[in-house]
Specification:
The structure holds two protein chains of two kinds. By secondary structure, chain A is an all-alpha fold. Chain A is built from five helices and no strands. By secondary structure, chain B is mainly α. In chain B, helix 1 (about 25-45) runs antiparallel to helix 2. Classes of the chains: A mainly alpha, B mainly alpha. The interface of A and B includes residues 3, 22 and 32 of A.
């Protein structure tokens, strides 16, 4: 899939942070393409598990679990799981399934 | 031997190039798919398509080497775009060398074709640069970057990383501004400001 096609997919979605600066969108899209291509980890090798990922998503103070943070930075599967959690947790209670 | 419609021009579809390096199947397939339109283009620019095969063969070898060098997976979907771009560039160079450029609108046509694929090539190179970037930046900056990708705004990142918003922003900008500039032609490189919001 080309960068342009992916970029179109992201446009209009509540996917990236709301306070992006000019050019940051392209950088994040490129990162998304790169990590899904090079670090997809669909077999979830070395993944820390849902509990630890959820702890990071819900954290309101400094996260001390550096091992998990380092893993997440190079694992598309964990990033996707955390994104899904983040979207789920940010929904108002009435929309939760 | 490859190709083509009956009595039409042919190009030499080889397994290996002049240097003995294997030629990728995806590039060869792309060449077959674009051969007819390529002949038409060469004929429009040069007046006939006798040189279409030579240009195509050298382009196939070049693109194949390029993709192999970057370790791109087999049957890469953009092989055809890349081949098309390189063919057009080769044709343009060829015309230039022979001083046969004529102001008939075709050069502009080629220019119009080039940018999309050219951007793709830049993007392609950029993906590879991410690997280098990861080696260069420290853990904290990479984690901040991953959090931005997850959709966290700066106050959230500040909480989770345990640093001031402005510090997080400066980490992000300092370490990624080179990459940022590359994607934006250096037109939107954000500057570290040290002001930002305070926690």
């Amino acid at each position: 899939m080309t960068a342009d096609k992916l970029k179109r997919q992201f446009t209009g979605m509540d996917y990236f942070p709301p306070d992006m600066e000019p050019g940051e969108f392209e950088l994040l899209v490129a990162f998304d393409i790169w990590i899904h291509k090079n670090h997809a980890n669909s077999r979830r090798v070395g993944c820390p598990g849902r509990e630890k990922l959820e702890a990071i998503v819900r954290a309101k103070t400094k996260v001390e679990d550096m091992d998990t943070l380092r893993h997440v930075g190079l694992c598309a599967a964990c990033l996707d799981e955390m994104r899904a959690m983040k979207q789920e947790f940010s929904k108002p209670p009435s929309q939760k399934t | 031997m490859a190709t083509l419609p009956e009595h039409g021009p042919v190009w030499w579809d080889r397994d290996v190039d002049d240097k003995g390096a294997p030629i990728r199947d995806d590039v060869r397939q792309a060449a077959h798919e674009s051969w007819d339109s390529w002949c038409a283009r060469v004929k429009a620019v040069l007046g006939d398509c006798t040189e279409a095969a030579e240009l195509m063969e050298s382009s196939v070898a070049h693109v194949s080497r390029y993709l192999t060098r970057h370790g791109v997976c087999a049957f890469y979907p953009q092989a055809k775009s890349l081949l098309s771009l390189h063919c057009c560039q080769e044709l343009k160079r060829h015309v230039g060398r022979r001083c046969r450029i004529q102001a008939v609108g075709l050069t502009a046509e080629l220019d119009a074709l080039a940018p999309t694929s050219d951007n793709w090539v830049q993007t392609f190179d950029f993906w590879h640069d991410f690997q280098k970037l990861h080696i260069q930046v420290d853990d904290r900056s990479w984690i901040i970057f991953a959090m931005r990708h997850l959709g966290h705004d700066w106050p959230e990142i500040s909480e989770k990383v345990g640093i001031a918003i402005s510090t997080a922003q400066n980490h992000f900008r300092n370490h990624f501004k080179g990459a940022w500039g590359k994607l934006n032609g250096n037109s939107h490189v954000p500057k570290s400001n040290g002001k930002g919001h305070r926690k």
